[in-house]
Design brief:
The protein has eight helices and no strands. It has about 260 residues and is mostly helical. It folds into two domains: about 1-35, no CATH class; about 85-250, no CATH class. Helices cover about 70% and strands about 0% of the residues. Helix 5 (about 120-150) crosses helix 6 (about 160-185), helix 5 packs antiparallel against helix 8 (about 225-250) and helix 7 crosses helix 8 (about 225-250).
């Protein structure tokens, strides 16, 4: 009896099922599992990064070029070639935070941002700047609900709109990273209202295009009007929820 045949008679180390192939038919784990070693650890790290690169870069590129196809393909079930929306979104946030904090560390630009848009004092705005990413992540489900109610219902489920929105939200951080790198190369202060204004204008313009490109594939009636109403509702809701979140953090003495 060969070693392979002997191995096939052993139970799966993960779930205990009898092994009949190279992979367990119940849980999918390999039939032969080596002891943990530095070599195996290095292979796992390499596999992780090559796996991310394969789907992550393709999804990012296609999202820029043809966002409607990415969103529709993923919603309709063609998901093997795309990076999953939640991890895709979190990775881009992580990349942005690393780039932004490195930019702060290597530059000495003053903060020239006028925070009067939220009508809050300096202490409240400092809290907002510190927790801005977390606040905006928590607002995403509300934005998805508005899009679903005003535009996508009943053609799409809410969870489908939320998944598509995570891809759309990821693009905001792509814009910020590209813009930030450009401003650093030009030796310009990125902590200004002009920087924020350009990124917001570029993002809203792209969102309008991406949303139309995606929703138009589902034959939604009065699509342009519904998208305009949704964008207005989302902007108003964003400002209201941000102010409420900041006031809550101030009340809880979170600094």
């Amino acid at each position: 009896m060969t070693n392979k045949e002997t191995a096939m008679q052993q139970p799966c180390l993960n779930c205990g099922a009898v092994l009949t192939e190279n992979y367990c038919s119940r849980c999918g784990q390999k039939s032969t599992v080596k002891r943990l070693s530095w070599h195996g650890f290095a292979e796992e790290v390499l596999h992780f990064f090559t796996h991310i690169e394969k789907g992550f870069i393709k999804t990012s590129t296609q999202l820029v070029i043809n966002p409607g196809n990415v969103l529709k393909n993923y919603v309709d079930g063609k998901r093997k070639t795309y990076h999953k929306p939640i991890s895709f979104f979190l990775i881009w946030i992580a990349i942005y935070l690393v780039v932004y904090n490195l930019a702060l560390a290597i530059t000495s630009y003053p903060n020239a941002i006028n925070d009067s848009n939220f009508s809050l004092d300096a202490n409240a705005m400092a809290i907002f700047n510190k927790y801005r990413t977390v606040i905006e992540i928590l607002i995403i489900p509300v934005v998805a609900l508005i899009l679903w109610l005003l535009v996508a219902k009943p053609r799409l489920y809410y969870i489908e709109v939320l998944s598509a929105l995570l891809y759309i939200a990821s693009f905001f951080y792509i814009i910020l990273i590209v813009q930030l790198l450009c401003w650093l190369l030009l030796n310009l202060n990125f902590r200004t209202d002009l920087f924020n204004g350009i990124s917001i204008f570029a993002y809203i313009s792209w969102v309008a295009y991406a949303a139309y490109n995606f929703c138009s594939k589902y034959a939604i009636r009065f699509l342009v009007l519904r998208l305009i109403l949704a964008i207005i509702a989302i902007v108003l809701t964003y400002f209201i929820l941000v102010q409420l979140a900041i006031k809550l953090l101030v009340a809880l003495h979170v600094g």
